[in-house]
Specification:
Keywords: Hydrolase, Periplasm, Protease, Repeat, Serine protease, Signal, Stress response. The chain has 522 residues and is α+β, with helices and mostly antiparallel strands. Helices cover 19% and strands 31% of the residues. It folds into 4 domains: 1-37; 67-290, Thrombin, subunit H (Beta Barrel); 293-392, Pdz3 Domain, CATH 2.30.42.10; 418-521, Roll (Pdz3 Domain). α1 (2-11) packs antiparallel against α2 (17-36). The termini are far apart.
Length: 522
């Protein structure tokens, strides 16, 4: 073949030497590639009739046929009868868009004789008939029926429900052992991983859809312990309570909500992680209700200005400092007994990183009351550790604060822009503060000031400037000025509406007003 190519070139004696070299090189390359039989450029073949037979390279996509065949017998349809249309929020709200988005998947409501029949999904987790579904599937139901994959309909008893995580546990009494599926480890699920959703959307039982995990730990504002797995598998109303599988056949989530302007799937769905489900189901099976861990702190997110005021440094990668800033510690709480104080920054709980107050709340709630937990935190930017005995949620306490003072000061430099007043008995009564609360009251906030930009309001009670407690306007003004003159952000501990919070104020905000004191300004 190489010889033929060269002969062709030699016969082209009219070519210029430049074209000759170009064609010779091309012929040599083409001959070499064909001769080597490389598969990088498949060649289409044609038979004597001229029909082309492409030589294709097929890339295998995930095939879920065997997985679905094996797990489908454990996925069930659930029918819940609600006595009256007016009593069932499942019935009308979701179908008419009454839920804010994201919202729980709604079932297919059908009105007849003053009853509403709503349909959802669920799955069997034990051979003796325990079934997991969503709380909103069976909430308010007077009768619940579970239909197995083979069409067998069984009456179900509601063992327990947990509205905060939207999990419910049902029990049926089968004639024999049921096929069931296991809960997997949702903590090992990664974005980009293939998942399969099986359920009963719009009453079409046994529907299978596939997609990938989009994200983990999503807080959609649906409940205090939101930490959803986000998926793009097409799932719709009626998928509520259905399982989300990984390719190994383990359930890593329970489909519960979607984000959609129309009520149908647009590729943004949310599933309750199986690790959460395990904890809730175990408690519901044993006691019929859920008990959550309690630490006893009110915490805030750390903004960049707060990080600056606290002296927190960015991570090694340059990411902003994270954690849960303790705003207040409840009296007699596990946190107080462990030595935690307002101003501490919780960074880890049982070795798990704490990035936000929400993460702290979710992790604490998942700990069994009476269990010891290890806590890592920063105090004055120095690492500390403590062992805390988690108690049962049911008790709690919060506090808050404000400031004020007015005595126009001619000193130059950055100003806070507030008027401060002593915390008199009359002001204490007006603000509904307990006798234990100490500080100064913010009676006025200058428009456009650093205080206004930081979110300080009239009626706030400033209790401390940094680590220094304050009980009179002049001391407050002096402490703030000292921080501002050093060009540092200042962290104020404030009581607002009975809650204790921290407010970080930057000295670089546009404000030309001096703090006063009498009604002392800051």
């Amino acid at each position: 073949m190489l010889r033929d190519a060269m002969s062709d070139v030699v016969r082209s004696n009219t070519l210029s030497s430049r074209r000759f070299r170009t064609r010779l090189l091309a012929s040599l390359v083409a001959s070499t590639v064909v001769g080597a039989g490389l598969a990088c450029a498949p060649v289409a073949r044609a038979d004597e009739t001229g029909v082309i037979h492409p030589d294709t390279q097929i890339q295998q996509l995930p095939n879920f046929v065997n997985l679905v065949k094996q797990v489908k017998p454990a996925v069930v349809s659930i029918t819940a009868r609600i006595k009256d249309a007016d009593t069932g929020e499942e019935m009308g709200g979701g179908m008419q868009g009454g839920f804010p988005f994201p919202f729980p998947f709604q079932m297919m409501p059908q009105q007849a004789h003053h009853t509403v029949e709503a349909r959802g999904s669920g799955f069997v987790i034990s051979p003796d008939g325990y079934v997991v579904t969503n709380n909103h599937v069976v909430k308010g139901a007077t009768k619940v029926t579970v239909t197995l994959d083979d069409g067998t309909a069984l009456p179900a008893k509601i063992v327990g429900r947990d509205s905060k995580t939207d999990i419910a546990l049902l029990k049926v009494s089968p004639s024999g052992k049921l096929r069931f599926i296991e809960l997997g480890d949702s903590d090992r699920v990664e974005p980009g991983e293939w998942v399969v959703a099986v359920g009963n959307p719009y009453g079409l039982g046994g529907t299978v859809t596939a997609g990938i995990v989009s994200a983990r730990g999503r807080d959609i504002g649906d409940g205090p312990y939101d930490s959803f797995i986000q998926v793009d598998a097409p799932i719709n109303r009626g998928n509520s309570g259905g399982p989300l599988f990984t390719q190994d056949g383990k359930v890593v989530g329970v489909n519960t909500a979607i984000l959609s302007p129309s009520g149908g799937s647009i590729g943004i769905g949310f599933a309750i992680p199986s690790d959460t489900v395990k904890n809730i189901v175990e408690q519901l099976e044993k006691t019929g209700h859920v008990t959550r861990g309690y630490l006893g702190v009110t915490a805030q997110e750390i903004t960049p200005s707060m990080a600056s005021a606290l002296g927190l440094k960015p991570s090694a990668t340059g990411a902003p400092a994270t954690g849960a800033l303790v705003a207040s510690v409840s009296a007699g709480s596990p946190a107080e007994k462990a030595g935690l104080k307002a101003g501490d920054v919780v960074t880890q709980l049982n070795g798990q990183n704490i990035d936000t107050p929400h993460t702290l709340a979710v992790n604490v709630a998942s700990i069994t009351p009476g269990t010891k937990a290890s806590l890592s935190y920063l105090r004055n930017n120095k690492p500390q550790t403590a062992t805390v005995l988690i108690s049962s949620l049911g008790k709690g306490g919060t506090a808050d604060g404000t400031v004020g003072d007015n005595a126009h000061d001619a000193d130059k430099g950055p100003k806070l822009g507030v008027t401060l007043a002593p915390l008199t008995p009359d002001l204490r009564q007006q603000l509904g503060l307990e006798e234990s609360v100490r500080g100064v009251v913010v009676s006025d906030v200058q428009p456009g000031s650093a205080a206004e930009q930081a979110g300080i309001h009239a009626g706030d009670v400033i209790q401390a400037v940094g680590e220094v407690p304050v009980e009179n306007p002049r001391a407050t003004v002096s402490a703030i000025r000292q921080a501002f003159q050093a060009n540092h952000s200042v962290l104020l501990r404030v009581v607002r509406n009975g809650q204790s919070v921290f407010v970080a104020v930057s000295p670089n905000a546009d404000d030309n007003d001096a703090p006063t004191d009498d009604d002392d300004d800051q």
